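Sharing a chain and its predicted structure for anyone who wants a worked example. Both blocks are below, sequence first, tokens second.
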Amino acid sequence: MIISLLTSIFIHDMAQAFVAAFFNIEIDRLILLPVGGLPSISLKPKRKIHELLMLAAGPAANLMIASFLMIFLRPYLAYWNEPENIGVAYAGNFLFQFQFINLSLGLLNLLPVFPMDGGRILDAFLEKRYSSEKAVRIVNIISIIAAFNFLMAGVITLRYPLFMIGLFIIFTIPLGKYYHPLKKRVFYGNAFD
């Protein structure tokens, strides 16, 4: 299970690194998180589409792996109908676990919250309309609201993975500062300024 998770994160990060190299986007460092890596770029790309493609490459790689693995899982719905298959690894469900991990990583990284790729994509879109500082504040507010909703949904429904996602978002919002070289000073400030 751990090897599957680490392999999935590695594939996610390598897809982003490959696209970044293809478009000459310089990455200073990579911060590894349980849901993928967080690239720190020294200079924003000249074309916004290059940045968006780089950010989308990681989740796309995970979702493509998850889609490809459906071919090998027969009968497919039987894996989802057995609750003991999710989160428990044994020889008979290795491919399902690998698919579940990639599906989870891909979808979680598309959430429009910092530091997920979806949050950075939203930030890039907002920069076209607002200043960098205002774009960061908007994404921070959305991140806080999303985290609160995950926390509440987890408590109300007793689904602790939802609660853990909310906690993860709350504690990792400040890591978004490492993504954008021009925004480092606004991430630890008050999101509501």
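Comments welcome. Strands lie at 27-33, 36-41.
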